């Protein structure tokens, strides 16, 4: 991995100085997970699976959702699942 030290340094700062904010991130992720589950019931997403500050789900219009979340100030990215871009 190129520039792994740079990423490791960011992780160390986060662990040393940002631990208190991590609980806030987890709480926000759970809120987002609940909103996703109620807004897109067709995705059959179980928000109880969100146990960290990462919300992962399948949705046919993932790229569009990412664009709409960006407008709202939420950082998101589609991922590759089973060889298909989500």
Would you give an account of this structure?
This protein has 86 residues and is mainly α. The protein has one domain. The chain is built from 3 helices and 2 strands. The protein has helices at 4-17, 19-39, 62-71, and strands at 80-81, 84-85. It has a two-stranded antiparallel sheet with strand order 1-2. The radius of gyration is 15 Å and the shape is globular. The two termini are 24 Å apart. The relative contact order is 0.10.
Percent of residues in β-strands: under 5%
Terminal CA distance reads 24 Å
The stretches of 5 or more residues where confidence is low (pLDDT under 50) are 82-86
Number of strands: 2
Summarize the amount of helix as a percent range.
Answer: 40-55%
Give a quick account of the main beta sheet: strands, pairing sense, barrel closure: 2 strands, antiparallel
Task: Give a nutshell description of this structure.
This protein is mainly α and 86 residues long. The chain is 52% helix and 5% strand.
Task: Please outline the helices and strands.
Elements (H helix, E strand, L loop, with lengths): L3 H14 L1 H21 L22 H10 L8 E2 L2 E2 L1
Antiparallel strand pairs: 1-2
